[in-house]
Each structure stands twice: as structure tokens, then as C-alpha cells.
Amino acid sequence: MKIWVDADACPGEIKDIIIRAAHKRCIETIFVSNKVISTPDSPFIHTVKVSQGSDVADAYIAERAEKKDIVITQDIPLAAILVPKEAVVISVHGVLFTPNNIGERLSVRNFMHELRSTGVQTSGPKPFSNKDKQNFANTFDQQLVKLSKPL
User: Fold this and answer.
1) What is the pTM of this model?
2) 136 lies in which domain range?
């Protein structure tokens, strides 16, 4: 099992939770970004800087993440690629993307994207909150425990 982090838009508080878990459980963790990401020196923590461009980090993760890896991303199209591969995909808000919810999430995302492209003003995302942080920590821990159990 590896942990992949779509790090370009990942809040610092979430990065800290992921880093602590990687150390505690000795899990290889890769932060992928198109800019330099600061992480502590660790045999478990790695960074990959990809070239600038739309969805370059997403493509990098999509090509490499495997079944039972954990992927942290806010990118719903990336989640839609990874869920069928049986990767565990969690948003920074603690939403677990599953075969049961990813289709609807992708449809809503695409609909909102179409609205914005026609000039309709939509509200942006809510500010990241302590509740979001707690939801993420709970979901992330539950999935780590679940994946760590022997078959």
C-alpha cells in the first residue's frame, strides 16, 4: 500500500495528518505537485514535481496508483479513474469516493463546469474548516485501519 497525494491544492493541515500517519505506520507516501512541496526528511515521504500544465499531476497519479493504494485528491475526474482500479480515494473534506457515489459526483461536477463555461456565476468552494479536517482525519484513519488488516 502507498499513499498518493494530489498536493497542489491540499491544505497544509491535511498534509500534516498524512505525514504523521505515514511515519506512524511506515507507509510510503508520495506528494505529487507542479511546484516544490516542503516535506520533512523521511524514508517514507517523497515528493514528485511534475511539469506545469492542466492535470499533469493527476495523470502521474492515475498511471501509478494501484489497487488498495490510498489517494488524497479534490479532483473528481481523477477519482473517477481511480475508483474502478480499486484505489481508496478520499477528498480533503473526508469524502470517500466509491463505486456507488463517483458517477453522481462526476455528473454534478461536469454540470457545474458546463454552467460556468456559459458564463453562469456559481459560488466557489466553502472555506476549509475544522470540521472538514476532522472528517478527513476520521475517514483517512478508518481506511488505513481497514487496509492494514490481514485478509
Assistant:
1) 0.87
2) 3-148
